[in-house]
Design brief:
InterPro entries: LRR_dom_sf. The protein is an alpha/beta fold and about 500 residues long. Helix content is about 40%, strand content about 15%. The longest helix is centred in the first third of the chain and has 18 residues.
Length: about 500
Amino acid sequence: MSKLNKDILFLLFEELRDDSKSLFSCLMVNRLWCETVIPVLWRNPWCYDINYHNKNYLFTIIASYLSDDIKESLTRQGIQLPSFSYQQFLFDYLSFCRSINIAIINIITSIGSPLSYNQFILQQEFYGLFMKKFPELKYLDMRSIEHQIFYFPDAKIRFESLSELTCDTSIDSSYFYGLAQLCQYIQRLIIINVDPTDYHSVAKLIGVQKNLNYFEWKDDHDIYAPGPDRDSYKEILLALEKNANIINHLNIYFIFISRTSPKVLPKFHKLKSLITDFWPFSEEQLKMCVYRDLEILKINYYELKAASIIIENSEGHLKKIFLGPTYELDEFYDYIDNFNDDSLIFICKVYQKCLLIEYLSLTFPPSKQHFDEFERLLKICQNLKSLLLAIYMNAYDVETEEKLENGKKLLELLIRSAPTNLKEIRFLYDVEFSLEVLEEFFENWRGRPAITILTCRFIYKEENYVKLINKYKNDGVIKDFRCESFENVVNGDFKI
């Protein structure tokens, strides 16, 4: 490995760009590896799993780039700066950097002084330095920003290349207007809605984009702000509609009903991933939502009918379908009037239209018909890698015996028909496994790829279960068996 040429190494490190542990280890191999990995690490040095409060090397490196005059001025104000210059470093680190994270910069500058005013002045000098030293600016997380950095010298040139922006709506409108003038080729835009008072400036920034590929909006407040026409999201959606022909990834979470959504969402014909809420779309409105290239779909747990219609209108490219289950079973039944029928139709639509499916959430009652259709799905969808199975019984208080019987049927079915690619199963709600049934499952799983099981029932942390699980881990039958939080079990992005 140490004899690989620099170009091959760079490609390898690019694949590891989100794996900080591996990248930092590569620094220690030899000089060539170090020289090759440094540009990858420093492209976005704020994104790694580092405690920035305790590690001051970033502060030391950045502060060392400041001119002697600026250092002297800052020192007179009581700001503590490193005493050596950046010429003593082996690399010109800032020349590799393409990103700014405001929150991390705020943490780093607190190393120089505990005083808010001094930190503000130091941040201003850092941003001015970035505008001069960065060859371009690709990524900006501007949450908690206090400096209008797009007015700095050289900022116009830097911001024209911005491709990814994360922000929140608490920021003064002048920031969004300023960015709208400079940044019109953003490819990935993430907006956290924490202050629903005025969306005009945000809509302006969205509307001027010419290359928007990914858009994410997440409500993070509980303030009802209906707007003049009783739809607070109308201005955002109409601005987003201008990019309907180029957006491939749409992630919208509205906590209140949008009357504009049924008119706008059907226009995004080129979507590859869609995360949204279709409530309360009518059946006619849902049938207008045709996403032929869709590969990833995530909607709320109670929208089984909507999911089935979206799947029916797809062209068979779906690889991931996630449903978000709820904590409370009574809430579940309050929302779904025809749970038994809708869940059965959903299972059928998956095995009829989604032959490429790899990651799948299923929600159904433990009836013979549902188990039969689920088994048919397993036999047809041979690419399945991960399953989340939420078994619901139409009762608020389910006896343990019933849960154990559900668990036994489910594991027997999986042994008979699970595809060979299946490597992960997540279990929720009205299903439990006795020690004997679980052992029989593990014995019958021998010879297949090691399975990972996630559950949020902590009964499996009892001593007898732990002993059994460890036995089959040692035998290579189980890769892992974890009792995780509800959030981790339902989160398809959570990996062990």
